Amino acid sequence: MIAFLIKRAANAAFVMLAVALLAFLIFRFFGDPVEMMVNEQATQSDRAELRERLGLNDSFVTQYTRFVGNAVQGDFGMSYRNQQDVMVLIKERFPATFELVLVATILSLIIGIPLGVITAVHRESKLANLLQLGSIVGVSLPSFVVGIMLILAFSVSLGWLPAFGRGDTVQIGWWSTGLLTPSGRRALVLPAISLSTFQITLVMRLVRAEMLETLRADYIKFARARGIPTDRVQWRHALRNCLMPVITLTGMQIGNLIAFALVTETVFQWPGMGLLFIQAVTFVDIPVMAAYLMLVSFIFVALNTLVDITYAWVDPRLRDDAARAGGANG
Amino acid sequence: MLLALIALSALFAPLITPQNPYDLAALELWNSEIPPIWNADGQWPYLLGTDTQGRDILSAILYGSRISLIIGFASVLLALSVGLTLGLIAGYVGGWVDNVIMRIGDVLLSMPFILIAILITAMATASLPSGLKDVLAAPILIFAIAVPSWVQYARTVRASAMVEAKKEYVQAARLIRVKAWRIMLHHILPNCLTPIMVAATLNFGLAILSEATLSFLGVGMPPDQPSLGTLIRIGNQYLFSGLWWIVVFPSIQLCLIVLSVNMIGDWLRDALNPKLR
């Protein structure tokens, strides 16, 4: 088990180093940091001095090592655009994105799981067919289109819910939350729905597939034979055995949701990290872009590794040889 | 069926649309902001109304679909050819070549798809002079969407190439000195085409979606040669002024295209899956 842990951790570390290299390359070769930072009047010697001070004259390897070292400590330098510490900017924006992703994830589970069970249990019914068709539609709907349509319906036509912003927020330490105020909660509704649409269909399809598999198992037939009510067998005995893959999927998708939140955030002008990133892209604010890339990849890789480790912990067969497991899976 | 209809109408867009949306001279400002034809203020020939510059929405949609479909198709083709080549080489040759290729793939998969695409387009546009930017927008997008998606094909092909390479007929072919590329192309590749075809169809839908998303975010096609995503982005600005038709119709078209592609993909998967037959 320990060998497996080390192997997975090393793998994750390698991937993160590669992502860091990519971020560093972007940082180093797109736009000259000195030109971005000095003002118009700076003399040649000012520039040379700044260059020396930033360590841009050092060797490539030294610079890369320093970049990784700083990144580990959460230091990504200054934003070119507003001369603020990048980490401070991201820290400010992180709660908004986190709350959005969290609510969207919860939504996808409480809607997706029951729908998946229903389509699996009443396989031939009209409702199930309709839901199944709905799930294909759900996968095909771009999230920004969903967002725009929601705004059009609930904000522009009906005027029920706000179309942009986060509403009032409450500050708890450095964390700002919109969940505690009525306007904050109202503002969260539409973005959360539009972000979770895709996820709902994903959860639903997975639950359906798993349920169909499980319902065929002997212990389900046995439970029925014992006279346990069908509903109870389906919703408790069968569903419980389908939840592991759902948890895995949810865990792995959180990274994707954070990345996709940038689309939702653009539609709803939600002041999260994604919006910060898109603005950084428009202004070629490279430190912010590099920091965002590193952070999202880190969350992504960390979650994947965690899921792998949990799996190995639950299922010892996956522990012994990664190569064999990989070969067996496909 | 629907997809064929959409593709045909997009293909013959110049023949059936009332105006050329790129031709600025054809735009008349007094024809701007006309609602769709069934509305009391609707005007012939603007079936779906016009935008704030007097551009016919229907024409813009058909031209936009053409751009979206072309970019989607080209990026799948590019990803497919790169993925198949690298996957075959990795699986057949093995050793460190395999290691390097698959590690690059791992790194690409460890970042969200959309993030890679945005970064590539952003970097490309940042480093190009502004004159070239608009001309190269489509190729950049194709490239940006293809980069994160070749890995999937490569993995599939690699897995079956590794299995096939050990089989006797490949060993025999090697013995009689059939060239390596010939073995790969004629003996190994046909064995893994089925899953690849399904993946490619589903990815076609994904590619169109990605292109639309990028354009919507403002890092894709420029407004003077709009794809569906760009049209939606433009329409989004008028969301609150009651000009709903500018944004709604391109959105519907986009959904229809992706939906029909996904349905074909689903159907293909079921039809080609021997377990379900």
UniProtKB/TrEMBL annotation, chain A:
Highest taxon listed in the record's lineage: Bacteria
InterPro entries, alphabetized: BPD_transp_1_N, MetI-like, MetI-like_sf
Coiled coil (UniProt feature): none
Pfam family, one: BPD_transp_1_N
A Gene Ontology BP annotation from the UniProt entry: transmembrane transport
Membrane topology summary: Multi-pass membrane protein
Keywords from the named record: Cell membrane, Membrane, Transmembrane, Transmembrane helix, Transport
Subcellular location: Cell membrane
Protein name listed in UniProt: ABC transporter permease subunit
Source organism per UniProt: Pseudooceanicola spongiae
Lineage: Bacteria, Pseudomonadati, Pseudomonadota, Alphaproteobacteria, Rhodobacterales
